[in-house]
Amino acid sequence: MENLDSLKNEILSKINASTDLKVLDDIRVSVLGKKGQITEMMKGLGALPLEEKIALGKGLNILKSEVENAIEAQKIILEDKALNEKLTTETIDVTLPIRPETQGRIHPVSKIYEEVVAIFGEMGFDVANGPDIEDQFHNFNALNMPGNHPARQMQDTFYLNNDPTKPFDMDTAYVIRTHTSGMQIRTMEKQQPPIRIIAPGRTYRSDYDATHTPMFHQVEGLVIDKNITMAHLKGCLYDFMKAFFELDEIPVRYRPSYFPFTEPSAEMDIGCLKTKTELKIGAGTDWLEVLGCGMVHPNVLKAGGINPDEYQGFAFGLGIDRLAMLKYGIPDLRTFFESDVRWLKHYGFTPLDLSSMTGGLSNNGGLAR
Ligand code: DAH
């Protein structure tokens, strides 16, 4: 029995001295496991005379439960200790400044999109969104381009079979929109004048070279009210170009042109300086075409359910990708859609530079880039 007391002291002091859960468990196994000290002693009881067996058996049972309790108590202490250590080493300091290098980049097309929305938003335009898959009424017919109209050949259209159970029928086929101009009609169908919207979005044509890709981006603009004139169109687009290129003055000119959905129609050019290595917007004597525009054709107003004797309007359409190439000096349009991370790192924008008319559009000195 004296031996039991010293054994108990020995075991309990080992338990109390243990500093981690693994060590504690090793002690448990060495004492209470299948071949543990106490287990072995219990196994030996059978060989003893009855009285000794009873006395030692009782002592061993008490010792066993004391050891079990001590292990349990020490386990709780060590678990608490381990948790506290984890909490102190794994803290996150939320007050640290953000990392200077942000991983993601905003694609130049998204950036220009934001800039265009910021400028026209400031002028009081709403943003209208519409479907990429369009019917021929909205993409062509309602825009004064009936089926036999030669202007349909101006655009290399992708047609879609809208009923796979029937053979392809050119007259009823859907198209993936060749321009955003269909949004003029969709807007008029929903809303009576005054109308002041831009409709940015994806457009598609069967075309592929350094300045054409099968999918590209346009922004349509439409303003309709009583007494809208060509002067409003010119003022609006001039203000837009100055804001967009972040210049106080910019030379512009309008050339007469032809679009079926506007009358009169024009193309807008901006003045620039072209050298072999540089394109400087707003200087020199070269002209660069930037958009198509005009006064909305009466037939288009009628198709949209608006009385052309009461209302007039102007419309314009510009290419977002082309604007991105000009503003940020990107030579080949095809690279826009190659998903090359190195390209995006070079031409992309940090996500925290939000475009706004008050905070700055491009936040990088615009053309100085
Ligand atoms: N839809 C024309 C195109 O894709 C662009 C355009 C020209 C839109 C004149 C207009 C406009 O609204 O008035 O080439």
Q: What is the general shape?
A: elongated
CATH-assigned homologous superfamily of the largest domain = Bira Bifunctional Protein, Domain 2
Q: Hetero groups bound? A: 3,4-dihydroxyphenylalanine
Rounded average pLDDT:
89
* Level-1 CATH class name of the largest domain: Alpha Beta
DSSP strand tally: 11
Count the DSSP helices.
11
Proportion of helical residues: 25-40%
Helices and strands, in order, run as: HHHHHEEHEEHEEHEEEEHEHH
Largest sheet: 8 strands, mixed
Class by alpha and beta content:
alpha+beta
Q: Do you know the CATH topology of the largest domain? A: BirA Bifunctional Protein, domain 2
| Uncertain regions spanning at least 5 consecutive residues | 365-369
The figure for the number of domains is 2
Rounded to the nearest angstrom, the radius of gyration is 39 Å
The second-level CATH architecture of the largest domain is 2-Layer Sandwich
| Terminal Cα span | 90 Å
What percentage of amino acids are in beta strands? 15-25%
Describe this structure in words.
The chain has two domains: 2-88; 108-347, BirA Bifunctional Protein, domain 2 (2-Layer Sandwich). The chain is 38% helix and 20% strand. The protein has eleven helices and eleven strands. The protein has helices at 2-17, 21-32, 37-44, 50-89, 108-122, 136-139, 182-190, 230-245, 298-303, 320-328, 341-347; strands at 126-127, 133-134, 158-160, 174-176, 195-204, 215-225, 252-257, 262-274, 279-281, 286-296, 312-319. Strands 1, 5, 6, 7, 8, 9, 10 and 11 form an eight-stranded mixed beta sheet that branches. Strands 2-4-3 form a three-stranded antiparallel beta sheet. A hairpin with a 4-residue loop joins strand 7 (252-257) and strand 8. It binds 3,4-dihydroxyphenylalanine (DAH). 3,4-dihydroxyphenylalanine is lined by residues 179, 181, 220, 259, 262, 292-294, 315-317.
